[in-house]
Amino acid sequence: MPARAVSITLLALIASAAVQGQPAIDSGRRNAIVKAIESVAPAVVTINVVEIQRQRVVDPFFSEFFGLFDVPRSRSQERAVESIGTGFLFDQQGHIFTNYHVLQDADAISSVTLADGRQLEVEFAGADERTDIAVLRAKGTELPFIPMGTAEDLMIGEWVIAIGNPFRTMIEDPQPSVSVGVVSANHRRVSRTVADGDRLYQDLIQTDAAINPGNSGGPLVNALGQVVGINTMIFSNTGGYQGLGFAIPIDRARRVAAEIIEFGRRREPWMGFRGEALDEIEAYSRQRLGLHAERGVLVTEILRTSPAYDAGLQLGDVILEINGKQVTHPREIDFINWDLFIGDPVKLVVDRQGQQVALRFKIAEIAR
User: Fold this and answer.
1) Distance CA 193, CA 60 (A)
2) DSSP 3-state of 290
3) Disulfide engineering: 273 pairs with which of 160, 172, 289, 302, CB 3.0-4.6 Å?
4) ∠ at Cα 41 (148, 95), nearest 5°?
């Protein structure tokens, strides 16, 4: 065969192989992550809120013409401060998850916008400050929503997707921003001093998917397109992303939302006692009280109408464990309590004069 014919045949084979390989390449590009993003992004919303800040300012006219009298005249001035957060629709009824801190200081919700640019009319359904979860209700039909997954079976190293609206004031189009990372840690316990210890920032999902200001309230999604968490906070020395993002597990958020939707609020769980950390009590005082435990929480107050009292808890008992979790500080007991719901079972392991005693009861709603 002439050399020219061989060359033409070889080129034809290469071209044919390239054409046949194109669908495979396209299929590889449209992987599970791309499909998950395409599925869930339409249900992510941008939440714009307005806070009216009031301040006293010195009247410049008075200062200019009457400055000799040293009697400053002030007037009240209002300033509208806008901020942004993220949310997502999670059911067919139009309910929207976001963080409580997105709405916390707002005087009004100025807009809630879908990724396709549609503005939704919403109403406030309720919120739980301690778990940092809020629920809005959108009016309308056939709204997109993200199916629920679970954080219980998340694997370290599993791919996850964070979707939100950081820096929306600098980007005019409504489509959300996407970042991809892995689950860095599960059931992460942060310091009990974070948020002054007033929020249940415990048992969190840690991810290295980039989370920035404005992402709060957005979904953390697995490769199946299921929401597994609500992006909530970052650890940063600069205020920007540094590789440490945290999300509230969707399992907890679902239970809070169910309470809000049914009762209009999160019913407050209650055990009915207070205590003091043993390691904050002087050794001499512990000896006088006849305490044998090395660490735990000493029961110093208990109400006679509480479920814990009915179960047999006594003053002077030292709480060692609650539902299998060791406790050494009253704030840790608060965190466990806030993560429980009315009717949930509780097992206390206490040290009573050197003997371990197990007490069982069910969580009740706090008496008001």
Assistant:
1) 44
2) coil
3) 302
4) 50
Domain boundary, last residue among 103, 138, 173: 138
Collapsed DSSP state (helix, strand, coil) of residue 251: helix
**Residue 153 known to be catalytic:** no
**How far is Cα 296 from Cα 281, in angstroms, rounded to an integer?**
11
Check if the beta carbon of residue 121 is closer than 8 Å to that of residue 138.
yes
Question: 135, 264 in Cβ contact below 8 A?
Answer: no
The structure tokens 């669908």 sit at: 23
Give the active site residue among 83, 179, 184, 216.
Answer: 216
**Whole-angstrom Cα distance, residue 231 to residue 246?**
6
Residue 104 belongs to some domain of the structure: yes
Q: Is 173 a catalytic residue?
A: no
Q: Range of 13's domain?
A: 3-30
Q: Tokens 């629709």 appear where?
A: 89
Highest average pLDDT, of 4-18, 60-74, 144-158, comes from 144-158
CA distances from 165 to 13, 26, 44, 182 (A): 48, 28, 9, 20
Backbone phi, psi, residue 308, to 5° = -65, -40
Of the candidates 128, 132, 334, 339, the residue annotated as catalytic is 132
Residues 52 and 23 in one domain: no
Residue pair 114/95 in contact (Cβ under 8 Å)? The answer is no
Q: What is the pLDDT of residues 106-123, one digit of tens each?
A: 888 988 999 998 999 999
Q: In the prediction, which pLDDT does 283 show?
A: 85
Mean pLDDT of the chain: 86
Alpha carbon distance 105, 82 (integer Å): 11
Question: Do 18 and 95 reside in the same domain of the chain?
Answer: no
Token pair 């992004």 is found at 41
Which residues are CB-contacts of 237 (< 8 A; sequence separation ≥ 6)?
none
Domain assignment present for 359: yes
The DSSP symbol for 126 reads E
- 216 catalytic? Reply is yes
